[in-house]
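Work Package 3 (structural annotation) set out to generate three-dimensional models for the target panel prioritized at the project kickoff. During this period the team completed the workflow that converts sequence records into discrete structure tokens, so that structures can be stored uniformly alongside our sequence database. As a representative example, we reproduce one entry of 211 residues exactly as it appears in the project archive.
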Amino acid sequence: MPLCFVTFLATLAASLLLYLWAVAIVAVKRHRPPGWVGGVAVSPLQAAGIALLWSVAGVGWVLFFNVYRIHVDMSAFGDASFQAFNRGYTRRLPIVVLPYGAMCLVWTLMLWSEPARISHRALWGIATLMVISIASTPWAAFAQDEMQDHGYSEEAYRQLQASHLVRTLAVTIAAVWALAEIWRLPKLDMLTPNDASRAGRLDLPADTEGR
């Protein structure tokens, strides 16, 4: 297996591990995961995450409305032409899958970050959408492998499009959600302690929250 695909699978596995570990901490210990990412690194990481979300969402819709539909057109010219197109598409997949893997890793890692511009509730929602998109990915991969090995079939094509639609919708919703959080919420240093606490982005002592 090429190194780029090993890297891609490693990022997805790490993303799932970070998410499930965070869920286990919340379920068992009833508090947020520790802030591994803090200080000046948090805001740039969130900015990179938003950029990746919008980039991957755009690529996803291009694939859904354009690239994947070429499978149908190429199948009309016979299996040889279809297989040649499919092999060429697969060789160029790293430019698609590596940013996707990085996006999933960034947003699940964000569950382990200190409070910043995006609320903790939104971070959990976006990370969950990343996990949903990861869960749909194997179905698209299976359909792609099926067509690469046995040629075009309507069933495999529908499976590819359906699973890719789920993945792209999840990423698009996450992208809109993240951008809405950035526009809606004021900067953290402009909030009073009570405002920040109500926004769910600061863990304050009880006596501070009551003031």
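Residues 42-75 form the longest helix (34 residues).
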